[in-house]
Amino acid sequence: MNDMTGSFRESAVAVEKKASLLEAVNLALHRAMGEDPNVVVLGEDVGVNGGVFRATVGLREAFGFKRVIDTPLAETMIGGLAVGMAAQGLKPVIEIQFLGFIYAAMEHLVSHASRLRNRTRGRLSCPLVLRSPMGAGIRAPEHHSESTEALFAHIPGLRVVIPSSPARAYGLLLAAIDDPDPVVFLEPTRLYRMNPQPLADDGRRLPLDTCFTLREGRDLTLVSWGASLHETLQAADRLAERGVSAEVIDVATIKPLDLDTLEASVRKTGRCVIVHEAPRSCGVGAEIAASLYERALLDLQAPIQRVTAPDIPPPLYRLEHLYMPGVEDVLAACESVLNYA
Amino acid sequence: MHDKLAIPYTRYLAPDGRPLGDLPAWADDAELLVRLYRQMVLTRLFDQKAVALQRTGRIGTYAPTLGQEAIGVAVGALLRPEDVLVPYYRDTAVQLMRGVRMEEILLYWGGDERGSAYVDPAAAEDFPICVPIATQALHACGVASALKIRGGHRVALTTCGDGATSKGDFLEALNVAGAWQLPVVFVVNNNQWAISVPRRIQCGAPTLAQKAVGAGFPGEQVDGNDVLAVYDRVRAALERARQGKGPMLVECISYRLGDHTTADDATRYRSAEEVKQAWQEEPLKRLQSFLAARGLWDERREQQLLADCQAQVQQAVEAFEAAGQQPVEAILDYVYARWPVALAEQREMLLERVARREASLQGGASHE
Predict the structure, then answer these.
(1) Where are the alpha helices (DSSP H) in A270-319?
(2) Does one domain contain both A185 and A41?
(3) Is the whole-model pTM more than 0.80?
(4) How many CB atoms lie within 10 A of CB A215?
(5) Active-site positions of A?
(6) Residue B278 phi/psi, 5° resolution?
(7) How many C-beta neighbours within 10 Å does residue B6 have?
(8) Chain B residue with minimum CA distance to A115
(9) Are residue B306 and residue B350 in the same domain, yes or no?
(10) DSSP type of residue B181
(11) CATH number of the domain within which A28 lies
């Protein structure tokens, strides 16, 4: 029932085998390193160990220690090193082991990676990709469950991409590595091993800066990204059982936002629910809602609703299910939007 | 005075220019010594002009390099074109030797994006000056990693002040440089003052150079007002890195004779007596006296040099002032390789803002 294949524009060709989102990331990294000798992978435990989630497994064996580099345990250093490497024309793909540990690297992303092209009038640039697992739902320890995509989305010059299916992880990561500017690529840990899908390792890129309409619908628009898309699609199934036709959009690139696709959908359906796992205040949902009000107020038949985490730290894991929006929460928001006078 | 803990300290010339002992063999190269002196004088005159331009409102805040000329000029003379400089904001001296034009430096501090262009290919791979403290040390390690991955004999050299050595970025840079034996040279300009905080309360270690020892590679101190000392030890550091023998740190002990920036007033936190004493040690007079004693310099040459440098600086000021207005695209066109379609509306917003301001100017005081 649950459509996590993201079948939109991803019709299976030359399907070899099923891949999880994690395996899709690994396949894309192998593909990118094989295609371009300038691609290097570095981070904590990415080499011999293949990464703590095994996203980089096999790369060291395939491409050698000069291109798959175990770094000292210092996130600031990883961020700064990537800036220097990228300025030299390498394409570093750095891994921050968990999103909760990224803050030490933020200065390099914000003050340098995102600005080097502008600061040098295009003489130097920063084609780096920062990969990091994100989100709650895997019973992880403290500081291992954050969803802080909005922090990066606020920074001019950065792209922020969050895949929600194996196919989109594969195609978007390849596109992110190709991109001549820095990209923050956040991988929902809750989806890492969930529901493997047929995936052709054909090197095909998916477009950045573009939303993916996973299902077309008439009655309301459900907007989400990352792991929350799982519950969002389940909610759409439940609505369909009741004869309510929901359009489901995977934002995928959080920055810059493809507002045209979102606007067109909301103009059509007149109703919108935004679902994200990150805390509500100043979340990307707020940006989307504000933009839709600016563009399509008179086409809206109900106020836009957001289903998010509350503004609290991600809890220790026994109550994390209350932190993350559940299917019932999405459905409740849909009810209020559908029943609005 | 210098508790060295086995940290070498190098000084060849006394403050009055008198050699303290045998000089290194390369110091027989009279042409080189004169070239270093000429460049130090040019740097100082340009620097003075930049401060004057700020005082008269023609550029914004500027970080003077007064008293630091020996360090930057020695580094600039030693780097090869293919090496990569990763500088900080008090590096006018070395930037001028890397092909960055005086008018570009004035444009940058004058608030004009075009000052970041560095059109001279000599600086093609150099970083721009870094304003956040010490982050550049890590960028240099990234550059050095790339150089090492690709093989060859190129070196990255990065500079910073004494305050920067307190920051995690600096220490993480030393750590990775040592762990990976990177072809990188750290030049610390210990000018005694991080804005108002003096060296003695910046760090408890007797030398800044010994931080390198903790990271597994050599650190040395030199008299940063003695261009011969700086040149000799940075030369050794570059040679070492070029041969694949790993990093080295050179702590150049100098004194910031000027304010931190033109927005600072150093009289608030240090005594006139201290500054007066520091002027006795300054690098230009020291080298000039040495050259004169060797018969390589005299008053006639000095006057000719001053005239030449003034003319060069004046020409740059004229180019700076003739640059005209930058178009609005200057703040749009380099943020992304290609402006994202998804942000098209924001580009329009800015262009409309330009049109509105122009209409406002033409229409007088109306805010409509």
Answers:
(1) 284-296
(2) yes
(3) yes
(4) 18
(5) 144
(6) -65, -30
(7) 7
(8) B335
(9) no
(10) T
(11) 3.40.50.970
* A249/B contact by beta carbon, under 8 A: no
**A49 and chain B in contact, CB less than 8 A:** no
User: Which of B218, B230, B206 lies closest to B181 in space, CA to CA?
Assistant: B218
Q: Are strands A91-95 and A129-134 parallel, antiparallel or unpaired?
A: parallel
In this structure, the strands spanning A253-255 and A305-309 are unpaired
Chain-chain contact of B335 with A156 (C-beta, under 8 angstroms):
yes
Judgement on whether residues B266 and B342 belong to the same structural domain of the protein: no
Asked if residue A285 and residue A321 are part of one domain, the reply reads: yes
DSSP A165-212: SHHHHHHHHHHHHH-SS-EEEEEEGGGTTSS-EEE--S-----SS--E
Are B229 and B111 found together in one domain? yes
**Residue whose token pair is 């992978």:** A41
Question: Do residue A216 and residue A178 come from a single domain?
Answer: no
Which residue of B126, B127, B160 to mutate against A (max A Cβ within 10 Å)? B127
Structure tokens at B367: 């805010």
Query: What are the pLDDT digits (tens) for B69-86?
Result: 999 999 999 999 999 999
Tell me the chain A residues in contact with residue B178 when contact means C-beta distances shorter than 8 Å: none
First CA to last CA distance, chain B: 68
- A69 within a domain of the structure (yes/no): yes
Is A8 within the bounds of a domain?
A: no
d(CA A299, CA A285) in angstroms, rounded, equals 19
B4 in any annotated domain: no
pLDDT averaged over consecutive 10-residue blocks of chain B (368 residues)? 72 98 97 98 98 97 97 98 97 97 98 94 92 98 97 97 98 98 98 96 96 97 98 98 98 97 96 97 98 98 98 98 95 97 95 94 66
- The answer as to whether A1 is a domain residue is no
Domain of residue A27, residue span? 17-199
Nearest-CA neighbor of B320 among B131, B49, B94, B72? B49
Pick from B108, B148, B334, B346 the residue to mutate for testing the A interface (most A CBs within 10 Å). Answer: B334
- Domain around B102: 9-321
Task: Report the number of distinct structural domains present in chain B.
Answer: 2
> Which residue, A192, A191, A205, is CA-closest to A32?
A205
β-pairing, B156-161 vs B84-86, is parallel
- Number of domains observed in the structure of chain A: 2
Report angle CA B57, B93, B272 to the nearest 5 degrees: 65
Cα Rg for chain B, rounded, in angstroms?
A: 22
Residues B57 and B155 in one domain: yes
Q: Which value does ipTM take for this structure?
A: 0.95
Identify whether residues B268 and B351 lie together within a single domain: no
Q: Looking at the structure, tell me whether residues B337 and B218 fall in a common domain.
A: no
